[in-house]
Design brief:
With about 110 residues, this protein is mostly helical. It is built from two helices and two strands. The protein has a two-stranded antiparallel sheet with strand order 1-2. The chain is rod-shaped and about 105 Å long.
Length: about 110
Amino acid sequence: MTKASKIIQFPTNVIAFPKRGPIAKIEKQLEAMQDLMKIQYRHIVEMGKKLGLSEKECRETEKGYNSLLMQYSKRIGPQNVSLKYLDWTTDLVFNIDDEGTLKIQYTPEEPKL
């Protein structure tokens, strides 16, 4: 006959010893870099929101610019619009003719409602 053995569990008390040496130094550096990356990525998110707002403002300004340029071109004729006013318009069409020459044409469009 075999006697069953009783296992007695003694309370364990894990004592955390201070870390020393190169491992502790590396862990501190990792934690410091984590803190820095949290700050950096928070800035990226904030800048992304500002960028989205700036892009929206630019699109609105472009619409107004194109509308005003269209009024201007109606008065003087599209072929007479100075190149300096075409820099910022989105109403340019680029074509290459049969001889390979690049043709840039200003084609104002009425705003779509």
